[in-house]
UniProtKB/TrEMBL annotation:
Pathway: Pyrimidine metabolism; UMP biosynthesis via salvage pathway; UMP from uridine: step 1/1; Pyrimidine metabolism; CTP biosynthesis via salvage pathway; CTP from cytidine: step 1/3. It is found in: Cytoplasm. One of its GO terms (cellular component) is cytoplasm. It is an enzyme of class 2 (transferase). Pfam families: PRK. GO terms for molecular function: ATP binding; cytidine kinase activity; uridine kinase activity. This is Uridine kinase. Belongs to the uridine kinase family. It comes from Colwellia chukchiensis. Residues 8-197 form the Phosphoribulokinase/uridine kinase domain. Gene3D superfamilies: P-loop containing nucleotide triphosphate hydrolases.
Length: 213
């Protein structure tokens, strides 16, 4: 690994497997020692394509679990910019309106970048940019229960709409585009975002990388 470019740690797995919690726990626990210029989180979901040109009735029909729903080319471009020492303006996304918001988040390169999302391993162009690849391996029935609990509260979804979407796209796309790419992982983490040993091991690796800079 080069020492002068950000280390990109990609965390993938099924929806509601615990990717965000795993990334956020590591971020929160390392922030006091690394500072805001030392570590950042980027979400693949920030790169869902804008759908502002579509009516709401059409936005809900989108397959959000297929790679084509994402602007992966923009994510790849931003990762390249960050690796070259340049800042980027990351889009922000709203799950309630199914499209991008007007504002962006300005991000300067940090030595450690935690990147999390469901389809990060589906593109070889993206995979080639990752220094460490982690797969959160949580049984799908547990993910579904977590998704129902989360999306009814945080994403304004009804249980009926979650069930319909799960059967039509979330589950089939998991078997087509997420689970087969587990083989690209360097590390497979069981038990989701609360696996204390998996959290401590990645923190130790990050500390080692920081000492080597
Ligand atoms: N190991 C775990 N045990 C219990 N709840 C968890 C665990 N990991 C994650 N969760 C919860 O499940 C929900 C989905 O987790 P999240 O990290 O948002 O998943 P993802 O980012 O993979 O979609 C959240 O409410 C989170 O707090
Ligand atoms: N408008 C949208 C966009 C995405 N989704 C679902 O989000 C999931 C990915 O995010 P996680 O935090 O759960 O990893 C994905 O499974 C999409 O189905 C959505 O429902 N609506």
């Amino acid at each position: 690994m080069q020492t002068n470019k950000p280390t990109i740690i990609a965390i993938t797995g099924a929806s509601a497997s615990g990717k965000s919690l795993y990334a956020k726990t590591i971020f929160d626990e390392l922030l006091p020692e690394l500072g805001p210029n030392g570590i950042a989180i980027i979400k693949e979901d920030s790169y869902y394509k804008s759908q502002s040109h579509l009516a709401m009735a059409d936005r809900v029909k989108t397959n959000y679990d297929h790679p084509s729903a994402y602007e992966h080319s923009l994510l790849a471009q931003h990762l390249s910019e960050l690796c070259q020492g340049n800042s980027v303006d990351i889009p922000t996304y709203c799950y309630k309106t199914h499209t991008r918001l007007a504002e962006t988040i300005h991000l300067s390169p940090t030595p450690i970048i935690l990147l999390e999302g469901i389809l990060l391993f589906s593109s070889s162009e993206l995979r080639n940019k990752f220094d460490i690849k982690i797969y959160i391996d949580t049984p799908l029935d547990i993910c579904l229960v977590r998704r129902i609990n989360r999306d009814t509260v945080e994403r304004s979804r009804s249980v009926e709409s979650i069930a319909e979407q799960y059967l039509t796209t979330v589950r089939p796309m998991y078997y087509q585009h997420i689970e087969p790419n587990k083989l690209y992982a360097d590390i497979v983490v069981t038990r989701g975002g609360k696996n204390r040993m998996a959290i401590e091991m990645l923190k130790a690796k990050i500390r080692q990388l920081m000492h080597g800079r």
